[in-house]
């Protein structure tokens, strides 16, 4: 029997990246007692901490912000919402300024104007400062404590969670007035940098309490990386020329549809790249902006500007995709009382539509949605007394409470699920037959896991990861099959055109039985087709 320690708080934040830290910060500033539990070490885990990222930081000039909003509308299939884009632009501008002053982040200064440059952050320094900031405010941080399941009361209101301290082996049973899920997206353990903790845990837990999802078909992001590397800085490859294995230029690889060209070519042969389109000034800026991108080459003795190197595509799933837990209020409330979602765990369709927000938009969404979710959770907790632990029940199922007597291991589930989720010929180069066959396999994996995936102690963490990866994959493929058109990143070879009749969100949920529906665009763009 695993030892259990009981805690109580007003707001429980699950996660340790930017969205989680901003949620904890604003919940604390709203007067709530806040506990943040992270699967890793808050400040170093997740996709932001080891990288540099741009931020959607636009001065409050109407023309500049209108242009910023328009820049992604067509790419996203005209599914973005102007109300949310306006809010994110305003909140991001405020938060970045606060990060400089209260968060003590050392933004560089433009030598020409003397003004600080706040359009990007270096992940390691950003997250170090965020951890220090929320600790100064009195947020209690519990590291290396992955959450296993949510706790709900008799009315189905989310009132806490059960976690497991990996180092001590002790379970944590935390009662809370409200919970913020800021657990990141799901990259299916592809190996992309920082995504080892992004296994869809929050999505699984949200589905178990009945939360609705939106845009899960927009979850097939793949990043370009040097072969054998984990670093997917796809923006830098805008300066690349791509080559066939025999040295010929790979035509079309540098176009708007270039990643599809690369993907199809990778099915037949190796692909190489060279960053030969960057001049001396750009090369210097690239090294300053993303130093970790160049470490891999420096260690191998490769000059990526003058020498060719082999490339591959790594799945980034909902980390760079836009699908996730649906948010139904300006406070990032979900469809389940007491549960809030922020960052990559939540849908980013509101600002990106159906196309990846990349670092810039996702970073802005993380700090903005974290802000609103933290405030919303604090307000919810104020309206209802903090519950006692004894009156709550765990909502976790697969990986914790098998329904049958058979046995299947987490590694077996992960191996079977990832075989359907990682191949580019299935998930990236989509068609109905391939999606249907993969979904059938995943349905079988899920059924087997529900009956026989069992674990104890720390092994439960891996079991729940396996269940989460499978659950996210099934929602993703079910939604992709439902969208019989090509819109945003969800492109279908058997439905290559955009269909104006499908200008809506696809929503869904469920685990054993997945349901789907549609939701209208609240403030659709002027052009929808």
What is the structure about, briefly put?
This protein is of the alpha+beta class and about 525 residues long.
List keywords for this structure.
4-stranded antiparallel β-sheet; globular; disordered C terminus
Verbal overview:
With 529 residues, the chain is of the alpha+beta class. The chain has 15 helices and 18 strands. The chain has helices at 18-29, 62-70, 82-101, 123-137, 201-208, 258-266, 280-289, 291-300, 317-320, 349-352, 358-383, 410-421, 424-427, 432-452, 459-482, and strands at residues 4-14, 34-37, 52-54, 120-122, 140-142, 147-152, 158-164, 171-181, 213-214, 221-226, 241-243, 271-274, 309-316, 324-325, 339-341, 393-394, 505-509, 515-519. The strands form 4 sheets. Strands 1, 2, 5, 6, 7, 8, 15 and 16 form an 8-stranded mixed beta sheet that branches. A 4-stranded antiparallel beta sheet has the order 14-9-17-18, covered by helices on one side. Strands 10-13-12-11 form a 4-stranded antiparallel beta sheet. α1 links the parallel β1 (4-14) and β2. The longest helix is centred in the C-terminal third of the chain and has 26 residues, at 358-383. The radius of gyration is 22 Å and the shape is globular. The termini are far apart.
